[in-house]
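Need a sequence for this fold. Nothing fancy.
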């Protein structure tokens, strides 16, 4: 069964990874370094907004469907409806604020907001399937969603799209089309009046996701804020896209591990012992990928993105070192979520986010992209230490 699940998930992730990387390369080549820098900054900002659009419902849906928390059992049937109602209300409010506060950039910002709103809606459906252990159907939905959005992007590019907002709007159309199919399948409608108890349960996840995305995305925003040339920002963007592709390929293992950890959370010590092989395996894979990037970053950047992005190879090699921590951190995070210590995770993520932002502010003026890349390595190392400490402290935690 696990082999079947992993096979389906690897197929989906491989497909999604290849398509996403191909689309990213196509967008980078069409927009050019300067416009792709704008696109990358908008994408980073949108990822932060997506945390509020999600409202913590993705993680809550997956956790509660796998093993319900007694305090939330009565609300379990309402969770999909509450999630859908939340994302629609939040996206509408953010769009109104964008049009009132930043009218000159409203078109791009609104396109980004609704693209992420549609993407979050699709993730709600995937979270339900993952919590139920329906990994094969989850894989098929991933393939369908990415196919819809990729076809829309290619279509607008063929029609002559040259602006970032046009790319985001195309992805919104694709994600919305597939999202409508998901809502029809789930037969759910928005719940406009959401019980406070549900929001109380989602708040730690919002805190966790917001802190996490801050140290993942703040570097791009700080590069823009500190007036680093957009051409340089574009170089960092393409290097980081390749790192994200590696993370994406590793994600199916995390999905399988979370459900396994959650179902065995009644014995935390035994669960943590069973976690060790996966943790060691993640570190070994990170080491192998790091060595590959150290050796092959220059021809890889040239082959994938072209000579216009020369110089991004050095950044890619440094970011590869971070994979020594990023991949094991994924295993540690799934274990922590399964044990219900999301507040500890949120505190840890907040701490390293502050370190990351402060370090980048100090390093960017003098070291530029190199400083940003090395701060990513330091941040991931600190995060791993914090999560590991939390798991050790809560190894005797009673089942929830």
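Here you go.
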């Amino acid at each position: 069964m696990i082999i079947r699940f992993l096979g389906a998930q690897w197929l989906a992730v491989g497909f999604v990874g290849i398509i996403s990387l191909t689309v990213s390369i196509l967008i980078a080549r069409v927009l050019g370094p300067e416009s792709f820098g704008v696109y990358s900054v908008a994408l980073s900002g949108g990822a932060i907004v997506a945390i509020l659009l999600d409202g913590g419902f993705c993680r809550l849906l997956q956790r509660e469907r796998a093993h319900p928390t007694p305090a939330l059992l009565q609300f379990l049937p309402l969770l999909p409806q509450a999630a859908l109602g939340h994302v629609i209300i939040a996206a509408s409010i953010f769009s109104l604020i964008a049009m009132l506060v930043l009218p000159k950039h409203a078109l791009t910002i609104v396109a980004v907001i609704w693209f992420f709103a549609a993407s979050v809606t699709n993730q709600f459906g995937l979270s339900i399937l993952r919590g139920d252990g329906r990994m094969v159907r989850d894989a098929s939905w991933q393939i369908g969603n990415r196919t819809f959005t990729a076809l829309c992007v290619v279509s607008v590019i063929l029609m002559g799209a040259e602006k970032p907002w046009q790319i985001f709007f195309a992805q919104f159309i694709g994600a919305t089309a597939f999202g409508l199919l998901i809502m029809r399948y789930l037969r759910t409608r928005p719940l406009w009046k959401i019980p406070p108890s549900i929001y109380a349960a989602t708040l730690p996840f919002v805190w966790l996701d917001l802190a996490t995305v801050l140290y993942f995305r703040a570097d791009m925003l700080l590069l823009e804020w500190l007036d680093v040339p957009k051409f340089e920002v574009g170089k960092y963007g393409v290097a980081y896209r390749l790192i994200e592709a590696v993370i994406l390929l590793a994600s199916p293992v995390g999905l399988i591990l979370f459900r396994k950890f959650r179902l065995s959370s009644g014995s935390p010590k035994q669960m943590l012992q069973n976690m060790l092989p996966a943790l060691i395996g993640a570190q070994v894979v990170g080491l192998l990928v790091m060595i590959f990037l150290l050796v092959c970053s220059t021809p890889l950047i040239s082959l994938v993105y072209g000579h216009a992005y020369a110089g991004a190879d050095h950044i890619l090699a440094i970011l590869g070192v971070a994979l020594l921590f990023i991949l094991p951190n994924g295993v540690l995070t799934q274990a922590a979520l399964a044990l219900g210590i999301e507040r500890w995770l949120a505190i840890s993520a907040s701490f390293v986010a502050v370190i990351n932002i402060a370090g980048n502010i100090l390093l960017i003026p003098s070291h530029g992209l190199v400083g940003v890349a090395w701060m990513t390595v330091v941040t991931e190392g600190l995060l791993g230490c914090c999560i590991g400490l939390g798991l050790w402290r809560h190894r005797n935690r009673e089942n929830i």
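For context: DSSP finds eleven helices and no strands in the chain.
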